[in-house]
Amino acid sequence: MKLFDTLVQLIDKFEHSKRNVFPVLDENNNFLGVVLLDNIRKVMFQPEHYDKVRIEYQMTSSPYFLDLNDQLHDVMKKFEEYNT
Fold first, then answer.
1. What pLDDT is attached to residue 58?
2. Mean pLDDT of 13-35
3. C-alpha of 36 from chain center
4. Whose CB among 40, 50, 57, 71 lies 3.0–4.6 Å from 8's, allowing a Cys bridge?
5. Are 84 and 32 in contact (CB under 8 A)?
6. pLDDT digits (tens, 9 = 90+) for 33-77
7. 46 vs 3, more confident
């Protein structure tokens, strides 16, 4: 999903996928956060909002990032610190 996509585009993605979480990217494909199905559940059944609600307002930012080079100990420490 792109930052400025609309709710109707996101609902279409959820409808055709088995995922409950979608990453949100900026125009340069940099990761910005995620949209969780639970976060849009209330508005996804209100068609009058489909073209008005922007993804950027439904997105949750990640409290931390992992790198492929992170040591397992550091990854587990982040999981514990953020209760994930």
1. 84
2. 87
3. 6
4. 50
5. no
6. 888 888 888 888 888 888 888 888 888 887 788 889 999 999 999
7. 46
Measured between alpha carbons, how far is 5 from 80 in angstroms, rounded to an integer? 33
Q: How many domains does the chain have?
A: 1
Terminal-residue alpha carbon distance, the chain: 23
Residue 84 and residue 81: Cα distance in Å, rounded?
8
Beta-carbon-side half-sphere exposure of residue 28 (alpha carbons within 13 Å): 1
Half-sphere exposure of 68 (CA within 13 A, CB side): 0
The helix or strand, by DSSP H or E, that contains position 78, with its residue range, turns out to be helix 72-81
Whichever domain contains 30, its CATH number is 3.10.580.10
Confidence at residue 49, expressed as pLDDT on a 0 to 100 scale: 82
Residue 31 inside a domain? The answer is: yes
At 12, is the secondary structure helix, strand, or coil? helix
